[in-house]
Write a structure and sequence with these properties.
single chain, alpha+beta, three-stranded antiparallel sheet, two-stranded antiparallel sheet, 7 strands, 32% helix, 12% strand, globular, disordered C terminus
Length: 275
């Protein structure tokens, strides 16, 4: 009996994806659990051997740039992340103190404890980190992203605000920072291991703090207007508490610990040392 077109299509699909089907069978078939464990162990060993062969010093800049663009960009960068405006950028529109502004002028990419984020008020890399290849790469990519941003071609945003380039402060929920975000869920999906929600993570912290999304963050619900209020707390340490061990007071003074990469000490840095 002659095969039907549907059967022919299915046979073609099976032939083209046989390796994928074999892999799925090995993963979900309990009878092949030993094969699966062997394959995983062999793959891990192969990756470790391949990385051991790399010249990490020579390839540091290339690896840094690769990780920099490993996620959706904050805004579309010409011929780097995107070929047209509004293609992959998360930030669609920005308003600061009631004034529409160029998102690339007030936001920058910045590393966090779980990938890259779009940072609004964090200090420049040269203010946070000592001179190093890490800092140099951050500054270089910050400058390139801002220079090649598609926002530069838009009209009607970022008006001339005077020498200080800062809008006038005023009361009201629309006088803070307002952004329109796009998760591009039609293109990418969230991780099923580290993220069990569909939305955005916002970190609220000081401009000199390294962003730790697992400790100081709020969830923003997609498809809705999210209003986030904040308040500031300033903690000042008196010299008298130096009589206590750093582990008990949970902080260091500036002259008690020499930092390797950061310019200024923060309590977040102390917590990372303890861990």
């Amino acid at each position: 009996m002659a095969s039907t077109p549907d059967q022919d299509d299915w046979d073609i699909f099976v032939n083209e994806h046989m390796d994928d089907l074999d892999t799925l069978d090995m993963v979900f078939n309990p009878a092949k659990s030993r094969d699966y464990q062997y394959t995983v162990a062999h793959a891990k060993k192969q990756v470790k051997e391949d990385f051991a062969k790399l010249d990490l010093i020579e390839g540091y800049d290339a690896m840094f740039e690769l990780l920099w663009y490993s996620q959706l960009p904050c805004f579309d960068v010409k011929n780097v992340t995107s070929t047209k405006d509004q293609q992959f950028g998360i930030l669609k529109a920005c308003s600061w103190k009631g004034v529409p502004v160029d998102c690339s002028e007030i936001f920058t990419m910045f590393p966090t404890d779980r990938g890259m984020c779009c940072s609004f008020n964090i200090n420049d890399a040269e203010e946070m980190f000592k001179e190093s290849a890490y800092r140099d790469n951050m500054e270089k990519l910050h400058d390139r992203d801002a220079e090649l941003s598609f926002f530069k071609d838009r009209t009607g945003i970022s008006p001339d605000l005077g020498d200080d380039k800062e809008p006038t402060s005023d009361a009201g929920k629309n006088k803070g920072l307002s952004v329109i975000l796009d998760a591009h869920t039609d293109v990418v999906s969230a991780s099923t291991i580290t993220e069990d929600f569909q939305g955005f993570v916002a970190i609220i912290d000081g401009g000199s703090q390294f962003p730790l999304s697992t400790r100081k963050s709020v969830m923003l619900r997609p498809g809705y207007e999210n209003l986030v209020a904040m308040s500031a707390v300033k903690v000042t340490a008196e010299e008298d508490i130096k009589t206590w061990e750093p582990e008990k007071r949970t902080c260091y003074f500036g002259d008690e610990y020499e930092l390797l990469s950061h310019v200024n000490y923060t309590q977040v840095y102390f917590t990372n040392l303890l861990e």
